[in-house]
Amino acid sequence: MVQLHVKRGDESQFLLQTTCSISMEDLTQQVTRIYNSRLKVQRICSEMEELAEHGVFLPPNMQGLTDEQIEDLKLKDEWADKCVPSGGSVFKKDEIGRRNGHAPNEKMKEVFKKTIEEAKAQISKKQVQANVCVNMEMVKDALDQLRGAVMIVYPMGLPPHDPIRMEFEDKEDLSGTHAGLEVIEESEAQLWWAAKELKRTNKLSDFVGKNEKTKIVVKIQKKGQGAPSREPVISNEEQKQMMLYYYRKQEELKKLEENDDDSYLNSEWADSHALKRQFHGVKDIKWGPR
């Protein structure tokens, strides 16, 4: 199996196993789906952390308003009584004004915390260092775990305007957000390797040959962004190790030079004939004029 190390810019994303015979159209779609789905998992985890702290999302017309403003406008959260966490809620006001403040109790919080940690670990970029390949089934499993945790804590479900529910239903609106800039549409995705675009009309073998043990670094980006920066010949870690090695060698050479210094031979204690001259009484004789 060919192993792809997928990057976005200079940042590692995940490892993927495939075959030389796969079409670049299928491979580009596969890489893009995993890339975007990992982003979805990260967004849901982030929102679930807020859900655990401050409860469900307020209706859009109540978000950001103070209690006085809500009272003056006679607004009411119709979902507050419907979306109650299992075991009752603990009030913790959301200072930003996005959530209703009726958070789950500590036991239900722990369910969220444990599930979030497991989901993040499953799609983590650290899997690259561990040489673990990621596939779409693993990402879907992480999404299912998160969905299951929400159902346990909120058996009545979440409001339709809650971003977590919208993510699960693929109705999220990311326009105008930083998260939206990270997403790459399948039709706009490009894969690059060795400063060459892996065109969708070809097969992977047209670029890397037919050796199924090949390992390559591919970069995913949007159309129109041009060729991504080339991979450095050596990594930052390798460069640090090389600099450390040469520094140590330099220090060793300095010590050797100090050890080769023979200026000590002019010292009195280094004179091999000093004892003989002392016995003959000619120790301090000077031959120059006085």
UniProtKB/TrEMBL annotation:
GO biological process, one term: regulation of cilium movement
Protein name per UniProt: Cilia- and flagella-associated protein 298
Pfam family, one: CFAP298
UniProt source species: Chelydra serpentina
Domain of life: Eukaryota
Family membership noted in the UniProt record: Belongs to the CFAP298 family.
PANTHER family: CILIA- AND FLAGELLA-ASSOCIATED PROTEIN 298, PROTEIN C21ORF59
